[in-house]
């Protein structure tokens, strides 16, 4: 809404308020005046009639009734009564409600603005003795008619004044709009089209002081426009640079990354942009880092990390290489026209730099990076590539390893088919699987040197019509992302207890950390174990060492619940979280699985040997077995 329109609208509202207020005050004053008149009339007439009836010549009942009837027939009073000293009515004349034809005011008006029914009473005496009481109630028919006529005139006058003001505002708006269009618009257009030496047209309404001032301002602006054109162009170029750059790290931003990836996917020139690879890596603990360190330190750390990765990319890909920051914790870069083996080596090099730049987060250990890699082909849809990256990231977050998660497009398409790999597709599939019971438990020999009479249970999803079932490695990462991991793991526990009823030996089940942190999951598992005490004694829960460090209270509580029902515990991926050594006594696992990386490093690293010795010593104290032949 224009400023002029706002001004006129505000003035119009003010006038309407004034008119309505004046109308209300006028009607109220007239009503108060009529009330006062009715009361005065009642008092005066009651006094006069009482004096008349007090005369000895008028004390005859017939004369008294005649005088009262004459007064009532005048129509000025609604009720005329004469009462004896005891309060008994001797004479009464009354006009019933709705029977007075002299009332012309509508009923709704009488209910909206009612008049008070004024009463007056006086004593009738004969000397010192009281003969009775005369009581009068004024008839407000004439007053209501007068109030109605007055209100109608005032409202008509107010509405007429409002209509006239509205017409005046409309005409004024048209005139002002026409004046502005004729003068200001014409001069602004001429200024935009005129060269440096051209003069602007004269003002067409010189009598208007406001337009003359506007004309002078436009003229001065016209002189400044040409002088500032170069500066504006420079600022535009600077804004274009900032539009494609992250303000904290100085790297490219998400918009630049998406545009470049779309450009490569849409290229169809033979020999150019036939395909390539995209790498994305996420800092999983950025929120904890921000809570531990100051903002300036974190920003500087991100800038240094970005520059180190960018230097490696320029060494491998050339000076035209770039790195983009997609959001606070996600970074990505494109490797166009690069075969898979070379892209994997570049991704591993970047991963080594990221691992070397990790920050200590107190007792939770070092911060974690999750790295994913996928390929793309020219002509492929942008959403397909982004969905594949998201799928790979979900797998990496669920697996918890420090390696680069590589998900080629063909592999993902062969698994998901036409369903795609987006979150919505996974949500529908997992919901249907939970509702329809598409899950099954597949067992295999546990890769362990601890016991030969032990199998590991793997949850699989058997979708009707699918060529082969989906393993938990594929659907559990989306389940964790969608908050459905607790339902899936609870189904795995139920199937595992069912398997133990019909098979000998022990069964090992892996449980995701996201499920352990869910209180409803803990309660549901406890209910399942209560119903199967014999099978619970042969069940082992395989926990992640990272959960014991990062979410110690929840994991310890979950372990205590399992021990109450006879379930034994195991701990995997200990080499990635050696800090878990401090809390082994709190969960007392039956075995501790050490990955091959630590075993390979002990030959050349005294620290690795000391750590392995400490693990074995602690395991002996708490009655656990160290599994040196198992992976993560």
UniProtKB/TrEMBL annotation:
It comes from the Bacteria. Residues 274-409 form the GGDEF domain. Pfam families: EAL, GGDEF, LapD_MoxY_N. InterPro entries: Cyclic-di-GMP_PDE-like, EAL_dom, EAL_sf, GGDEF_dom, LapD_MoxY_N, LapD_MoxY_peri_C, Nucleotide_cyclase, Rev_trsase/Diguanyl_cyclase. Keywords: Membrane, Transmembrane, Transmembrane helix. The chain crosses the membrane at residues 154-173. PROSITE patterns: EAL, GGDEF. Residues 423-632 form the EAL domain. SMART domains: GGDEF (SM00267). This is LapD/MoxY N-terminal periplasmic domain-containing protein. It comes from Castellaniella hirudinis.
């Amino acid at each position: 809404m224009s400023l002029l329109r706002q001004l006129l609208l505000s003035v119009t509202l003010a006038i309407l308020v004034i008119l309505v207020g004046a109308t209300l005050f006028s009607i109220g004053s007239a009503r108060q005046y009529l009330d006062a008149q009715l009361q005065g009339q009642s008092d005066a007439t009651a006094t006069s009639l009482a004096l008349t009836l007090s005369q000895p010549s008028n004390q005859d009942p017939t004369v008294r009734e005649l005088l009262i009837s004459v007064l009532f027939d005048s129509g000025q009073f609604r009720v005329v009564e004469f009462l004896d000293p005891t309060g008994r009515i001797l004479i009464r004349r009354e006009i019933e409600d709705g029977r007075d034809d002299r009332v012309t005011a509508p009923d709704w008006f009488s209910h909206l603005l009612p008049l008070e029914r004024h009463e007056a009473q006086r004593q009738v005496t004969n000397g010192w003795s009281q003969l009775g009481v005369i009581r009068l109630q004024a008839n407000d028919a004439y007053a209501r008619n007068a109030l109605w006529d007055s209100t109608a005139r005032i409202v008509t006058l107010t509405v007429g004044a409002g209509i006239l003001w509205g017409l005046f505002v409309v005409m004024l708006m048209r005139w002002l709009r026409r004046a502005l269009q004729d003068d200001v618009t014409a001069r602004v257009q001429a200024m935009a089209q005129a060269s440096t030496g051209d003069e602007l047209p004269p003002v067409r309404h010189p009598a208007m002081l406001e337009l003359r001032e506007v004309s002078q301002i436009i003229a001065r602006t016209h002189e400044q426009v040409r002088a500032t054109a170069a500066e504006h162009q420079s600022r535009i170029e600077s804004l274009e640079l900032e539009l494609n750059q992250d303000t904290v790290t100085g790297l490219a931003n998400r918009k630049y990354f998406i545009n470049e990836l779309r450009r490569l996917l849409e290229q169809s020139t033979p020999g150019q942009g036939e395909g390539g690879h995209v790498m994305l890596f996420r800092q999983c603990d950025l929120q904890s880092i921000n809570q531990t360190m100051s903002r300036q330190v974190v920003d500087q750390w991100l800038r240094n990390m970005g520059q180190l990765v960018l230097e490696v990319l320029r060494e491998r890909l050339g000076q035209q290489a770039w790195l983009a920051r997609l959001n606070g914790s996600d970074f990505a870069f494109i490797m166009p026209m690069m075969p898979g083996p070379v892209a994997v080596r570049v991704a591993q090099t970047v991963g080594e730099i990221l691992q070397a730049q990790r920050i200590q987060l107190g007792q939770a250990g070092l911060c974690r990076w999750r790295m994913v890699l996928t390929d793309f082909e020219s002509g492929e849809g942008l959403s397909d590539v982004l969905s594949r990256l998201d799928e790979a990231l979900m797998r990496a977050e669920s697996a918890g390893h420090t390696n680069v998660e590589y998900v080629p497009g063909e592999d993902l398409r062969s698994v998901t088919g036409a369903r795609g790999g987006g979150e919505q597709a996974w949500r529908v599939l997992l919901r249907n699987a939970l509702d329809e019971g598409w899950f099954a438990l597949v067992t295999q020999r546990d890769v362990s040197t601890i016991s030969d009479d032990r199998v590991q249970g793997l949850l699989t999803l058997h979708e009707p019509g699918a060529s082969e079932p989906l393993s938990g490695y594929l659907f559990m990462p989306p389940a964790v992302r969608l908050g459905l991991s607790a339902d899936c793991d609870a189904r795995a526990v139920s199937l595992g207890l069912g398997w133990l009823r019909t098979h000998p030996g022990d069964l090992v089940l892996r449980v995701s950390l996201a499920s352990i942190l869910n209180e409803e999951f803990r309660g549901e598992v406890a209910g399942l174990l209560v119903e199967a005490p014999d099978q619970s004694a042969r069940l082992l829960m395989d926990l992640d060492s990272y959960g014991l460090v990062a979410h110690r209270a929840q994991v310890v509580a979950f372990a205590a619940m399992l021990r109450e029902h006879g379930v034994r515990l195991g701990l995997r991926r200990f080499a990635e979280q050696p800090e878990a050594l401090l809390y082994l006594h709190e969960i007392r696992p039956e075995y501790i699985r050490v990955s091959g990386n630590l075993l390979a490093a002990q030959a050349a690293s005294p620290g690795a040997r000391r750590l392995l010795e400490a693990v074995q010593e602690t395991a002996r104290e708490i009655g656990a077995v160290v599994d040196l032949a198992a992976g993560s």
